[in-house]
Amino acid sequence: MDSITQAVLGASVQAALLGRWQGRKALLYGALLGTLPDLDVVIDYGDAVSNMTYHRGFSHSLLVVSLVAGLLTWLARRWRPDPRYSGRRLFLTLWLVLATHALLDAFTSFGTQLLWPLHMTPVAWSSIFIIDPLYSVPLLLAVLAGLLFGLQGRLARWPLLALLVSSLYLGSTLAGKQMAEQRVRDVMVREGIQAEHLFSTPTPFNSLLWRVIVVDGEFYHEALVSWLDDMPPELVRLPRDSHLAAALQDSPQHARLRWFTDDVLRYDESAGLLLVTDLRLGMTGFHPFRFPLAERAEDSWQLIDRPERLPADRGDLDRLLQIWKRIWHQYPPLPLAAWAAELDGER
User: Fold this and answer.
1) Could you give the dihedral angle defined by the CA atoms of residues 97, 98, 104 and 105, in that order, rounded to the nearest 10 degrees?
2) Residues forming beta bridges with residue 106, ordered by sequence position
3) Which long-range CB contacts under 8 A does 25-32 form with residues at least 24 apart?
4) Measured between alpha carbons, how far is 136 from 304 in angstroms, rounded to an integer?
5) Those residues with Cβ within 8 angstroms of residue 80's Cβ, 6 or more apart along the chain or in another chain
6) How many Cβ atoms from other residues are within 10 Å of residue 65's Cβ?
7) Which residue in 35, 87, 52, 63 sits closest to 293, CA to CA?
8) Which ranges does the record mark as transmembrane (predicted)?
9) C-alpha to C-alpha distance for 328 and 15, rounded to whole angstroms
10) Residue 262 pLDDT more than 50?
11) What is the pLDDT of residues 39-56, one digit of tens each?
């Protein structure tokens, strides 16, 4: 999730558990600690693919989180002891501030290595967009109220109430994900489509409209499904060109991308470059993680040792308004095929 959301989440957790004793300082301590796991972005792992796939790694591990919470508890009790609350309560608070950061990230589509150092596919429950005002606003309001009016008396309950409201909303996004995938599976059965992978994620800034991607060999199908649709979704068939992956069999970056994304990838040849796109993130035709992993050398491909991430085209306000209208109206459908073709021009 975005840094502001993680900060107000950490502040709300610490205020709910220690606010009556720490006062407004609980909001500051929680906000700072709640953003700590994302400091791994300052580490350079050597190339853009590694920087992407090692992000949300060790710093988001529940094992590491537990060790850090234990160390911070020991330091606080040794150097700044407060007899008004127990070390057990302090440890629980610090652990929840850090753990909720990692768990909330796992609800997005990027991928979070909750069980690091185990080499398992990162957890990506993908039920909430990285910026979702309906999740963040209750927490933000509680934090602002705490800063303005303090955390005494009935006001001390506001962070807990905000956490409850946001958590209920987060739970509702799982229902939306189930709805979207089931509607797509019903169409797949009728049309005889066999899926190698099926991935769903909400569209930007909401949980009413969902993207569902069905990987099927050389092609993938993409559908938009809204809670308000009254007709079955349309599966748009798009080229994936997975045969190009054969040129990347010796690329460690490609192997890592396949692991990190569970193989939800698209391949394109453009201007003498072999491009690999993470289809899970962004929006149809506007994917922020695209990497040139090889370049054409006469009749063969030459692997690129240190691939860079291509500049991301995130679309414009007009596209965002079209997506917003699609939430409420199923027809006319959005031009997904045209948007996807804009990745590299008309194919």
Assistant:
1) 150
2) none
3) 26/151, 27/143, 27/146, 27/147, 27/151, 30/97, 31/7, 31/143, 32/7
4) 40
5) none
6) 24
7) 52
8) 58-77, 89-111, 123-151, 158-176
9) 38
10) yes
11) 999 999 999 999 999 999
Look at residues 173, 208, 242 and tell me which one is the last residue of a structural domain. Answer: 173
Residues 158 and 190: beta-carbon distance below 8 Å:
no
CA–CA distance, 160 with 26 (Å, rounded to integer):
13
Q: Is the pTM of this model over 0.70?
A: yes
Confirm if 294 and 247 have CB atoms less than 8 A apart: yes
Question: Cα separation of 305 and 119, whole Å?
Answer: 23
Q: Quick one: 192 and 325 in the same domain?
A: yes
Q: How does the average pLDDT of the chain come out, rounded?
A: 93
Position 339 scores a pLDDT of 83
3-class secondary structure, 205: coil
Amino acid identity, position 190: R
Query: Of the candidates 156, 173, 190, which is a domain's last residue?
Result: 173
- List the structure tokens of 79: 């150097």
How far apart, in whole angstroms, are the C-alpha atoms of residue 50 and residue 117? 16
Provide the domain limits for residue 44: 3-173
Encoded tokens for 82: 């407060």
The verdict on 197 and 135 lying in the same domain is: no
Who contacts 241 (Cβ-Cβ below 8 Å, separation ≥6)?
218, 266, 267, 268, 269
Q: Which two tokens stand for residue 234?
A: 């349309």
One-character DSSP codes across 110-170: S-B-TTTTS--PPB----S-SS-HHHHHHHHHHHHHHHHH-S-GGGGGHHHHHHHHHHHHH
